[in-house]
Amino acid sequence: MGMDIQRVGEAKKKQIRRVIWIIAALVVVLVVTVGLSKLEPAAPTVDKATVWVDTVQRGPMQREVRGPGTLVAEDIRYVPALVEGRIERIPALPGVTVTKDTLLLEMSNPDLEQNAAEAESQLKAAQADYQDLKAKLDKELLEQQSQATSVESQSQQAKLQLEADQELAKNGLIPQIVMKKSSMQSTMLAQQADFEKKKVRQNSLSAQAQLAAQRARVDQQRAVYELKRRQMDALHVRAGIDGVLQELPVQVGQRVAPGG
Q1: What is the per-residue pLDDT across 65-109, written as a single tens digit (0 to 9) for each?
Q2: What region, left, alpha or beta, does residue 195 occupy, with left being phi > 0 and alpha being psi -120 to 50 degrees?
Q3: Long-range Cβ contacts of 164-168 (<8 Å, 24+ apart)
Q4: Strand partners, 29
Q5: For the chain, what is the radius of gyration of the CA atoms?
Q6: For residue 83, what are the CA distances in angstroms to 80, 186, 229, 232?
Q7: DSSP 8-state secondary structure symbol assigned to residue 60
Q8: pLDDT recorded at residue 162
Q9: pTM
Q10: What angle do CA 18, 21, 26 make, to 5 degrees?
Q11: Is the dihedral of CA 127, 129, 135, 137 positive or negative?
């Protein structure tokens, strides 16, 4: 004989479990939604066969454009003649591509050439005079140093002789007059040695002053020569920049003034 036993509270427990599952599902949905909202947008994808993979490099980019019109230079520079001269040769013609060292004109100027030659000759003469003066002063200084050394040696010998004579005179082996003569000789030579040393120092300073003055003359002549040499170099007119020579309104034999 069977009998049903009533379970008290089962319906209520099922209802509670259902509410818990609903709340858990809502929490999971909320967490997923917040996580997705913080994700960065995905990069678009492309087919690898359609792209070229390489390392980025810095450098000029060449762009070719075709179309009718007139090509105008971005930077136009006029190249002036720095010195006066007569045009002897025109190595470059309009339309050629030039660099900063490209020779455009060769000019001549006899006066500049003569002045440059004279300046070079005067510079060499000044340098030769300096060397001659230096050799002369060195020789004189060596002779004076030799003389001073000789006198100093004599002074030291006289000093030793005086010490010996003083000892002999003390013992009565030589007269006092001999000892006095040795004393006078030693004093005289000591003074002469001191004088020779001072003379060497003074002559050394004098020699330095004379050489300094001659060096200044050499430097002056070198500056003049460098100026004349730069003027000679200016007879060769160069482009100065890289580009295309557009116009050269001069002719061989024409005389160009400075700034022309």
Answers
A1: 676 766 666 677 777 878 888 888 888 888 888 888 888 888 889
A2: alpha
A3: none
A4: none
A5: 52
A6: 9, 73, 12, 9
A7: -
A8: 81
A9: 0.58
A10: 125
A11: negative
Instruction: Report yes or no: 208 and 80 within 8 Å, Cβ to Cβ.
Output: no
Highest mean pLDDT of the ranges 13-17, 66-70, 85-89, 207-211:
207-211
Q: Are 127 and 217 in contact (CB under 8 A)?
A: no
Residues 6 or more apart in contact with residue 96 via CB below 8 angstroms: 244, 245
Q: Which domains does the chain have, with CATH numbers?
A: 85-249 (1.10.287)
The answer to whether 257 touches 84, Cβ cutoff 8 Å, is yes
Please, what sign has the CA dihedral across residues 114, 116, 119, 121? negative
What pLDDT score does 222 carry?
94
Alpha helix ranges (H) inside the chain: 10-37, 110-170, 176-233
Position of tokens 């557009």?
246
Q: How far apart are CA 84 and CA 257, in angstroms?
A: 5
Give the Cα separation of 150 and 162 in Å (integer): 18
Tokens 């045009």, residue?
87
What order do you get walking across the sheet with 85-89 strand by strand? 236-238, 103-108, 85-89, 255-256
β-bridge mates for residue 108, sequence order: 86
How far apart (Å, rounded) are the C-alpha atoms in residues 212 and 188?
36
- Distance CA(70)–CA(73), nearest Å, equals 10
